[in-house]
Amino acid sequence: MKVRHIVLGLLSISVIAPIFLYTDRVGSFVNPSSSRRDFLDDVSAFETSTALKEPIGVVYSDHSTVTREHKSARVLSATDEERQQQQLSNPIRQVIDRAPPGLTTALDSHPNASDISAIELEQQPTQPSGKIVQEHSDNKHDRLTEPADAQVRHLKDQLIRAKLYLSLSAIKNNPHVTRELRLRVKEVTRALGDATKDSDLPKNAVDKLKAMDQSLEKGKQIQDDCAAVVKKLRAMLHSSEEQLRVHKKQTMFLTQLTAKTLPKGLHCLPLRLTTEYYTLNSSQQNFPNQQKLEDPRLYHYALFSDNILAAAVVVNSTISHAKHPSDHVFHIVTDKLNYAAMRMWFLSNPPGKATIQVQNIEEFTWLNSSYSPVLKQLGSPSMIDYYFRAHRASSDSNLKFRNPKYLSILNHLRFYLPEIFPKLNKVLFLDDDIVVQKDLTGLWSLDLKGNVNGAVETCGESFHRFDRYLNFSNPLISKNFDPHACGWAYGMNIFDLAEWRRQSITEVYHRWQRLNRDRQLWKLGTLPPGLITFWKRTYSLDKSWHVLGLGYNPNVNQREIDRAAVIHYNGNLKPWLEIGIPKYKIYWAKYVDYETVYLRECNINP
Hints:
The chain has helices spanning 2-30, 32-49, 80-88, 91-98, 101-108, 113-122, 130-144, 150-166, 169-172, 175-192, 205-222, 226-260, 264-277, 308-321, 339-348, 373-378, 381-388, 417-420, 466-469, 475-478, 497-503, 505-515, 527-533, 558-563, 582-589, 597-601; strands at residues 57-59, 68-70, 299-304, 328-334, 355-360, 426-430, 434-436, 453-455, 492-496, 538-540, 546-547, 566-568. By secondary structure, the chain is of the alpha/beta class. It folds into two domains: 149-257, no CATH class; 264-602, Alpha-Beta Complex (Spore Coat Polysaccharide Biosynthesis Protein SpsA, Chain A), CATH 3.90.550.10. The strands form three sheets. The protein has a seven-stranded mixed sheet with strand order 5-4-3-6-9-8-10. A three-stranded mixed sheet has the order 7-12-11. Helix 15 links the parallel strand 4 and strand 5. The longest helix has 35 residues, at 226-260. It starts with a helix and ends in a 5-residue tail after the last helix. 26% of the residues are buried. Keywords: Cell wall biogenesis/degradation, Glycosyltransferase, Golgi apparatus, Transferase. Belongs to the glycosyltransferase 8 family.
């Protein structure tokens, strides 16, 4: 009897429980708001946890010829270590990771790409089928937000794939496919032209793209040697890297050449002005207010330049923002070649009530090789050989080390300010590639705290520290200076000439120049000896006084530019050159009167 009850109990459980469970599930469908989501989650969990084989499917993209084959994963239980080992031992995947986008597309579209995908799937768990819908939705969203050069990139990828196929032996042995691919390459190249975005492409570009897709598909069916594809991709990658290196070197050389070549208009201008100057009588060749030149109560500027238009912009921009223009005195020193032209420019374009002095460096008879070590070095045969002999150009990796402008004594005249202005106590030194945006008179009232040089530090960027400019492998440098010390900028510097004389700064400069006669301490220009000469004698100014980088960096912070008292076009991309950065040229050009007769005659335009 007891056995009978037990059997009946088991029977009721086996029959009634499934019915109850079934009706409960039906109730879930009837009330979807309460448990429909739970049911779908259970299904997804079931699909994820069960090692079901996913059917082969092909997902087509409207804007791509690449197909993705989803195959069943052969090994789903691989450990993390096994996956890493498989990835490291897979040469194909290594090439894909290093290859540019075009080469990656070429490899993915290869007939054996499915094997590569299979290897990838062995290293990843099977993707739930529910996620395919989400992926398709994401692809649709991506198509709506495609970049403006999507088709241009696609065409370039096609060219790379076509060239890859044409280099493979299996394609070469098929004359029909070879001819067809070569024809497609010509068509796509012609359609692509110089286009940088899709809107630049001709109307038939889409037809050419589709035709190339069909030809590439034929080539993919013929070529089935994956090892040959990998080998060729590696060769193409190496060739591309080598071409990039060569092009970078050529670009650097041509940029340097362009930056140091005088534009035709700027060559015409001094010739035209010089001719005009010598038509004046002696009384017309003099500037007014010459009694102010040695008045220490006024604001004195030192500007050493052979570029007439650049010097004019410095003066014009400074006076435009000066509160009392009549208190400002500009001392311009130029070379013998441009002396008459510089005087003629400012005689015909006087800067309002400000005072102008133009001097010829040849008149500084005290500045000779017996007094100045750098002048002696600049005229030495070894120095000329260093800067001008092409057979030694490979000795320095940086071409700007070999810029002949460093042979100009004008570049080194900044170290002789007390000799040039013996009766002045403070002078503001300005480079000729700057633009003044605010009144600068506040600099004269600054307390430099016993320092000689007031300058803006540049160590916010790591490459502007002492080890960038000085040779710390030399014990003379390593024992006396800190390689991580913060550098500062030339271009706008307030100099205390009284303190300069008291500390004999010019003699410090001479001593280090004599030690560097073989260029073992530094090689480049005037900043390295400036860092040495004014070591622990430089007062740090607020960065808003002087913002640099407009001659090489297109991403200077706009807020910093707007707040700056002085903006500096340091670098090769000067605003008076065609290679200047366009968005920065406007700050410079607004201080040039292009309607001036001399500029129109020399065809100098904005």
